[in-house]
Every structure is written in C-alpha cells, then in structure tokens.
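Researcher: I've been going back and forth with a colleague about how Small ribosomal subunit protein eS31 might be arranged in three dimensions. Neither of us has a model we trust, so I'd like an independent prediction. The organism is Candidatus Parvarchaeum acidophilus ARMAN-5, in case that matters for your notes. Sequence below.
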Amino acid sequence: MEKKKQKSNEIWKLYKVEKGVLTRTNSTCPKCGAGTFLANHGDRLTCGHCGYSEFKKKSK
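Model: Here is an independent structure prediction for Small ribosomal subunit protein eS31. You can compare it with whatever you and your colleague have in mind.
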C-alpha cells in the first residue's frame, strides 16, 4: 500500500518567518476572511471554499 502524503507539512508553504515575524505568502479571500487563502493559478486567484475569483492583469 502506498504511503499517503501528509498535508500537515504542506500548510507551512503558505507562511514565511522573517526576523521572528510570521507573514502569509498568499493573499486571503475577502469573502471568507483571514483563515482562507486564495490559490494562485496562472491567470487568476481563486478561493476553494466559496469560489471567489480575481483575474490577474496581463502585462505587455
């Protein structure tokens, strides 16, 4: 049987510690609040909880 990947280790990719201060690397959902992050896709940011989407501006 395959070992399952532990998701508890994946959550730490969303935070960064600099000089003793904890900061979030991804932006949060404006509808759901501070506990829900927006997923960073190629052309948009989306919330997996409520479905909120923000489209990124294309740079020329």
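Researcher: What would you highlight for our discussion?
Model: I'd start with this: The longest strand covers residues 33-40. After that, consider the following. The radius of gyration is 15 Å.
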